[in-house]
């Protein structure tokens, strides 16, 4: 079934792509994708929480904690923690992303989920690979065990949130559309590419991508949106839920084809939510320039620079 939101965005963007979009994704998990999934230590998920809001979250475990047990079923031996807004997730639609920052490979999976004790069972509806653009190279350097702690739940951004967001080079975005499922995607750029525009608002540039417009297509039909910012070196998470809309005039933002404006309804900061600690290596050479972040805002490295990344697949 063609996605009306994707078609509307493609027309507005001047893209004539035929059946290109979520309708072209297959439900079956290829063998190469199953092997990739089995190696991962982290899965990003997007779903509607018990509060009815859309949230993005991170699940972690040893290699093999997420495994395709048949061509349309994935078993994840992990569930959101007690402080996570998705802690009560028991079923419904789910969007997932398996991303391997060390190799800049990623795989998106959308479907339905049910919970069985301490694990999630996902029935796939869409599986597909994405190109490596805008992925910063990182690798797991340590694993620290310890109980996560809820730091704050707020209805607007704190000073700490603002510094974190404006110093970020990566975040994850969850969207959904009635009757068409949920989706979880990656957004990356040089620090400063996400800008704060108010106590409850932020904006990010939408760079050239694969023209499927699955995130923007969902937002065309449903403004619900969940964002996840990871503290790669600390294990902290900042989860935001709210509403987003597309601003088609990119202004003078370098590399932007359009902008996405987000207004937060709730922000949840969890200390040590993930046991994984990551070491930054280099930025994607595809990142357009961005305004410099303040020194205290980011711990990943300089705000500009290129590397030797290969061409996108």
What features would you describe in this structure?
The protein is mostly beta strands. It is built from 4 helices and 17 strands. The strands form 3 sheets. Strands 9, 10, 11, 12, 13, 14, 15 and 16 form an 8-stranded antiparallel beta sheet that branches. Strands 2-1-5-6-7-4-3 form a 7-stranded antiparallel beta sheet, covered by helices on one side. A two-stranded antiparallel ribbon has the order 8-17. 46% of the residues are buried.
- H-E order: HHEEEEEEEEEHEEEEHEEEE
Shape: globular
**Proportion in helices:** 10-25%
The assigned structural class equals mainly beta
Rg calculated over all Cα atoms: 18 Å
């Amino acid at each position: 079934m063609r996605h009306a939101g994707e078609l509307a965005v493609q027309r507005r963007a001047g893209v004539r792509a035929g059946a290109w979009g979520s309708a072209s994704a297959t439900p079956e998990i290829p063998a190469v994708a199953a092997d990739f999934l089995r190696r991962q230590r982290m899965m990003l998920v997007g779903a509607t929480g018990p509060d009815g809001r859309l949230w993005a979250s991170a699940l972690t475990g040893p290699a093999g904690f997420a495994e395709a047990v048949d061509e349309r079923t994935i078993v994840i031996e992990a569930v959101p923690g007690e402080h996570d807004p998705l802690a009560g997730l028991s079923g419904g639609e789910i969007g997932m992303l398996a991303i391997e920052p060390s190799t800049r490979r990623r795989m998106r999976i959308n479907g339905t989920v049910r919970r069985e004790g301490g694990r999630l069972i996902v029935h796939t509806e869409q599986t597909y690979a994405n190109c490596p653009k805008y992925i910063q190279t990182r690798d797991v350097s340590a694993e620290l065990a310890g109980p996560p702690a809820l730091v704050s739940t707020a209805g607007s951004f704190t000073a700490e949130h603002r510094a974190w967001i404006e110093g970020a080079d990566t975040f994850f975005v969850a969207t959904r559309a009635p009757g068409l499922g949920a989706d979880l995607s990656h957004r990356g750029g040089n620090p400063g590419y996400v800008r704060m525009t108010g106590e409850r608002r932020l904006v990010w540039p939408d760079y050239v991508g694969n023209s499927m417009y699955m995130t923007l297509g969902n937002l065309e039909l449903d403004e619900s949106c969940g964002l996840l910012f990871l503290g790669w070196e600390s294990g902290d998470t900042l989860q935001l839920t709210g509403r987003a809309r597309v601003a088609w005039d990119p202004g003078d933002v370098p590399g932007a084809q359009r902008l996405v404006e987000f207004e937060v309804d709730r922000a949840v900061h969890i200390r040590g939510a993930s046991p994984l600690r990551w070491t930054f290596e280099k930025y994607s050479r595809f990142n357009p320039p961005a305004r410099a972040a303040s020194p205290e805002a980011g711990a990943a490295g300089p705000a500009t620079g290129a590397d030797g990344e290969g061409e996108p697949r």
